[in-house]
Specification:
Blueprint: E1 9-14, H1 22-35, E2 40-45, H2 47-50, H3 60-74, E3 82-85, H4 91-100, H5 105-109, H6 112-120, H7 127-141, E4 147-150, H8 155-172, E5 180-183, H9 212-220, H10 241-249, H11 252-263, H12 269-295, H13 298-327
Parallel strand pairs: 1-2, 2-3, 4-5
Bound molecules: iron/sulfur cluster.
Iron/sulfur cluster binds next to α10, α11 and α12.
């Protein structure tokens, strides 16, 4: 338990996939920003997680940089939260090894994401992919974080983290809290193809830095209610991804206008998408402008990450010292 005068510690990480898209923003990052007022927030760009999948090494530094730019542009204030690159804090990997000795092989084999990713990259089922949840547990426990904002697809990993913390505490003494999830109140944003989740690798995203004309172009081909084939057909907004985005981004009166017009076939999808494009561009305008400004100041962005890493390192080193003593390595 944190003392009454200390804010509860939150940790979360995001892979360096490059620029953020609107699904990341609505599903996670907006929540991260909101937590800064009430929590001691530690946020990492988790590049060691990213190398468990096929990637181009020359592109990785740019992907990390772009992710940091977009996180700052979204409102992660480095004066009030710690933002850093995971690989700059070596204690994450040191604790991973120690925790892996408290993790059972069978537990990792049951992880749904391991099975899914193994199927997707059958020629590269590396050990890092298998032990990914242990690195995630170390990311969290090295700051003794009590809370983790996660999507529902990460709940199984977080439950494993809690189990590993329990096991460590039982064997070596009460050192780690069992972290609790903070689930986003926004359901997952589907891709513009209406089926899969929004993902850059699938190519069905609107990126936060997309200019208004690009947003309009992408939305123009977005999948809508599949049963509304002609303008004269009434539609069902509740099964339409365009409407789901309206609900998250447009004012209530616009959502009411869409619902009424769609169900009575008085507006067409083209009109509806145009309205969404305008509202989305308006919401993203300050983020886009901030990101373009930050991208033009790379030294500042790198300095933020270095300062964040130094701060994180101090905290992580204090935990690892306690862990080493507890397991009999030191003293
Ligand atoms: Fe979807 Fe809008 Fe078309 Fe209705 S009018 S089906 S909500 S895009």
């Amino acid at each position: 338990m944190a003392p009454a005068d200390q804010k509860p510690v939150v940790f979360s990480g995001i892979q360096p996939s490059g620029e953020l898209h609107i699904g990341n923003y609505l599903g996670a990052i907006r929540n991260w920003v909101g937590l800064i007022d009430t929590h001691d927030c530690i946020y990492a760009v988790v590049d060691y997680h990213a190398i468990t999948q096929d990637y181009e090494p020359r592109e990785l530094p740019t992907r990390v940089f772009d992710m940091a730019v977009d996180l700052l542009a979204c409102g992660i204030d480095p004066a009030r939260a710690t933002l850093f690159r995971q690989s700059d804090v070596a204690q994450h990997t040191e604790l991973t090894w120690i925790l892996s000795c408290c993790t059972q092989f069978g537990e990792l084999g049951r992880m749904t994401q391991f099975k899914d990713k193994s199927a997707r990259q059958a020629d590269n089922i590396n050990i890092g992919l298998f032990t990914y949840p242990v690195l995630m547990a170390a990311d969290i426990l090295v700051y003794r974080a009590g809370y983790v904002p996660v999507g529902d697809d990460q709940l199984q990993h977080l439950e494993l983290c809690r189990e590993v913390a329990r096991r460590f505490n039982h064997r070596f003494g009460d050192l780690f809290p069992e972290p609790n999830p903070i689930l986003s109140s926004t359901p997952r944003v589907r891709g513009l193809d209406g089926q899969a989740k929004m993902s850059k690798s699938i190519g069905n995203t609107v990126n936060l830095r997309d200019p208004p004309e690009e947003i309009a172009k992408k939305l123009a081909v977005a999948v809508t209610d599949p049963n509304r084939r002609r303008r004269a057909d009434p539609g069902n907004p509740d099964v339409c991804n365009v409407f789901a985005l309206h609900e998250r981004l447009s004012p209530p009166q616009v959502c009411a206008w869409v619902r009424e017009g769609c169900t009575h076939a008085t507006i067409g999808c083209v009109e509806c998408k145009r309205a969404l494009a305008g509202n989305m561009a308006e919401v993203l305008k300050p983020i886009r402008e901030a990101a373009l400004d930050l991208a033009a100041r790379p030294d500042y962005v790198r300095d933020v990450l270095a300062t964040g890493a130094a701060r994180a390192r101090g905290r992580a080193a204090a935990t690892v010292l306690l862990v080493r003593r507890a397991i009999g390595i030191d003293g």
